[in-house]
Design brief:
binds iron/sulfur cluster; Rossmann fold; alpha/beta; 9 strands
Length: about 350
C-alpha cells in the first residue's frame, strides 16, 4: 500500500531505479504526476521489480502506487505468454498430499512442479503438501501490472490453506510468504495459521541436525526474488543458513537492497527486445562471477528458470537453496542443483 502522507517527493525512488535511473528533477516531476494521477512514462517503463519500495527513505511504498497506476491506465502490457502463465497458475489441478500427521504442512503454490527433482530428499519426506491452483497466491500478478488480482484473491487463498487445519504452513514460494505476511495485513485479513518461510524451516532443520552437516566451503551469488522486497526482515535468516552450511554469500553490487529482478518480469512485458532482457540477465550473472561466486543460488523456482542456463554457461552451478542444504547433509542431487535441465 502506498502511503502518500509519508512521501516528500524527494525523487529517490526513480533516481535509484536501475531500469529508469531518472535524474533528480525528472524523478521529482514524474513522481509528483504519479501522485496526482496524471499521465507519466513511469507506468510504461517500470518493469515491476518492487525495488523502489526499499529505496524510499520514508517507507512510502512507491512501487505500490506505480503498480496501481499501471493497472488503472492499462499501461503495463504483458506478453500473451506471461498472461497465459498467470491464468494457468490458478487453473492447475489442486492436491493435498498427505504425509506424516506429526509433520508440518508445506504449500508448494503453483510452482512445486516447475523444477522436477527439487522437492526430494529428507527435507521434504513426510511433509503434508498442498499444491495447485487452489493454493496459488496470486502475487505474480503484480509483475504484470494487475495488483487487483492479488487483492481480490487473497481471502480465497487464505481460506483454502486454512481448510487444511494446519496451525503452521511452510511457504516454499517466496511470493506466498509475502501474501501471508505483508499483503494480508494491508487487506485486513486475519490468519488462522502461522506462515513459516522455507528459509526458516531450512535454518531450523540444519540447526537441529548440525552434527550431520559437512560444511560446503562454497562462494555463491544469491538471487533475491522481487517478492522479498516486502519481507526483507528474513534476510538475516538466509545469512545464518549459509553460515551454518559453510556457504559465503559474495558481496556483490546486485544483492540485498540493490538486487536485480531475475528479468522474468521484463521478459513478461510486451515490446522489450530479447537482447535487452539478455543484457540484464548477464549483468546480474557477471556481477556474481566477478565478485568471486562459483555457484548461483535461487530461492524462487521462477528465478532459477530465468537464470540457471546462463549461470551454468558462465561456470556458476545453479542451486535451489534447499538443494544446497541437501548437499551439506550429504545427499546426492541426482537431478542437478536447480532441477533437471541438462538433457
Ligand atoms: S515515494 Fe519515497 S522515494 Fe519516492 S518520492 Fe516519495 S518519499 Fe521520495
Ligand atoms: S518497481 Fe523497479 S522498475 Fe519499477 S520504478 Fe520501482 S525500481 Fe524501477
Amino acid at each position: 500500500m502506498f502511503y502518500p502522507e509519508r512521501c516528500t517527493v524527494c525523487g529517490e525512488c526513480l533516481m535509484r531505479c536501475p531500469y529508469l535511473n531518472y535524474p533528480e528533477e525528472k524523478a521529482k516531476e514524474e513522481f509528483s504526476k504519479l501522485m496526482k494521477g496524471e499521465a507519466t512514462p513511469v507506468t510504461r517503463e517500470c518493469i515491476t521489480c518492487a525495488a523502489c519500495n526499499m529505496f524510499c527513505p520514508e517507507g512510502a511504498n512507491p512501487f505500490d502506487l506505480i503498480n496501481d497506476r499501471q493497472e488503472a491506465e492499462d499501461a503495463f502490457k504483458p506478453t500473451e505468454q506471461a498472461l497465459a502463465m498467470m491464468n494457468m497458475a490458478s487453473e492447475l489441478p489442486s492436491e493435498i498430499i498427505k504425509g506424516d500427521p506429526d509433520k508440518p504442512f508445506m504449500n508448494l503454490c503453483s510452482v512445486g512442479d516447475l523444477l522436477p527433482g527439487v522437492i526430494e530428499g529428507r527435507l521434504f519426506e513426510g511433509l503434508n503438501l498442498t499444491k495447485g491452483g487452489d493454493y496459488f497466491c496470486y502475487i505474480g500478478w503484480l509483475h504484470i501490472g494487475k495488483p487487483s488480482m492479488v487483492r481480490d484473491n487473497a481471502q480465497r487463498f487464505v481460506d483454502n490453506l486454512a481448510k487444511t487445519g494446519a496451525r503452521e504452513i511452510i511457504c516454499y514460494h517466496d511470493d506466498c510468504y509475502t501474501m501471508l505476511t505483508s499483503k494480508v495485513k494491508e487487506f485486513g485479513i486475519d490468519l488462522p495459521f502461522k506462515p513459516i518461510h522455507i528459509v526458516e524451516y531450512l535454518r531450523d532443520y540444519v540447526r537441529d541436525h548440525i552434527s550431520e552437516v559437512t560444511r560446503l566451503d562454497m562462494k555463491v551469488g544469491y538471487q533475491q526474488p522481487c517478492a522479498s522486497r516486502y519481507t526483507f526482515e528474513k534476510d538475516p535468516i538466509i545469512d545464518e543458513l549459509f553460515d551454518l552450511i559453510g556457504v559465503t554469500r559474495v558481496d556483490r553490487k546486485y544483492d540485498r537492497v540493490n538486487a536485480l529482478c531475475c528479468s522474468g518480469a521484463m521478459a513478461g512485458k510486451s515490446g522489450v527486445h530479447k537482447d535487452t532482457i539478455n543484457e540484464w540477465r548477464m549483468k546480474n550473472i557477471m556481477d556474481a562471477k566477478e565478485a568471486g561466486a562459483e555457484a548461483m543460488v535461487f530461492l524462487c523456482p521462477l528465478c532459477a528458470l530465468s537464470l540457471r542456463n546462463r549461470a551454468r554457461a558462465q561456470g556458476l552451478e545453479p542451486y535451489m537453496i534447499s538443494n544446497l542444504v541437501r548437499l551439506a547433509l550429504g545427499e546426492e542431487l541426482s537431478n542437478g542443483g536447480a532441477g533437471k535441465i541438462y538433457g
